[in-house]
Amino acid sequence: MLCCTIPEQYGELGLDYLFDVVVFEEITRSGFTGPGFLIHCDLVATYIKSFGSEAQKQYWLPRMVSGEAIGSLGMTEPHAGSDLKAIRTKAVRVKDGDGDHFVISGQKVFISNGQSCDVLVLATKTDSAAGAKGVTLFLVDAETPGFRRGSNLKKLGMRGQDTSELFFDEMRVPASAMLGEEGKGFELMMTKLAQERLAQAIRSATVAETVVDYTVTYTAERKAFGKTIGDFQNTQFKLAELRTEAVVGRQFVDKCIESFMKDELTAVDAAMAKMWLSNTHCKIVDECLQLFGGWGYMWEYPIARAYADARIVKIAGGSIEIMKHIIGRDLFASFHKQNGSAHVSAAGINPV
User: Fold this and answer.
1) How would you classify residue 350: left for phi > 0, otherwise alpha for psi between -120 and 50, otherwise beta?
2) For 137-173, what is each residue's pLDDT tens digit?
3) Is 169:146 a contact under the CB 8 Å cutoff?
4) Are 178 and 123 in contact (CB under 8 A)?
């Protein structure tokens, strides 16, 4: 069930995106948080399928489909999260007796699958003065000398998924390891952000539905004052509100999935889905936990783990604030376009 959309010549069935969605939803519904199947299937394999050379596809994709090789995405740095063009990991081209190589030095942080990965899509700067146009992606084998795994970071939630620091100490990679063209890495990353944000929204919609179901089951059985918690009007009213919000979120997400499969999902729609579902996800988990009382705070109960796991969704894949910027900027761009004005303020913020 790994990488369902990968074509048959690389070991899978070349199915449509909906198959990946079903697998991801069922993993999410189970409460399972690791390893990072979403990173492996929906991002790394997709990057290689979309931008890799034939040699890169032939080498990595069959191994990723079989599970022999685990994929990871190396973008975030200690000083560069949402502002990806500010990354400092440097790749310097060297042509010598060993051929055409790049020497890479730098570090990454918050890297999902960082401890377990075999292949890393790594964002670097090949021209530090060129801003976004100086970003280049590489496909790095984790066995490459100079590749070093740092700490497996201790997180608030998502504890089943390793999240690591990674270090690159004058790591030499052949020029053939470049993913896409030199200086085009930022552009390639931007083309995949809508898909990543849609995946985050799908996860949030699934968790919201699952938590409401779980809370209905608990309150239908738990007794207080001679009747079940579910018999109280407050419980019924609260769960009615939360169920409605979960259903509304599901309808929006399904519409976005449909648009994505038609290659019509816009960055703005993906940002709206990510923003609204992230907020809804956190709200529903928080209010459902309240109905569990003290037991909701105990780690043995799935609702407690869902609460800890939920908070990252407002950050991962682009923070809520970045989503608001994308949506707000589009609103004013549309206004000025309709009114014949060329002035649109971008507030100097990178649109990721």
Assistant:
1) beta
2) 999 999 999 999 999 999 999 998 999 999 999 999 9
3) yes
4) no
- pTM, rounded to two decimals: 0.92
Is 224 inside a domain boundary? yes
300 classed as catalytic:
no
The residue type found at 252 is F
Same domain as 329, residue 258: yes
Report long-range pairs for 76-81 (Cβ below 8 Å, ≥24 apart): 76/108, 76/109, 76/110, 76/111, 77/106, 77/107, 77/108, 77/109, 78/107, 78/109, 81/110, 81/319
Active-site annotation holder among 12, 25, 77, 196:
196
pLDDT tens-digit profile of 182-237?
999 999 999 999 999 999 999 999 999 999 999 999 999 999 999 999 999 999 99
Q: Which of 70, 92, 124 is the last residue of a domain?
A: 70
Domain boundary among 53, 70, 87: 70
Query: Cβ neighbours of residue 143 under 8 Å, at least 6 residues apart?
Result: 118
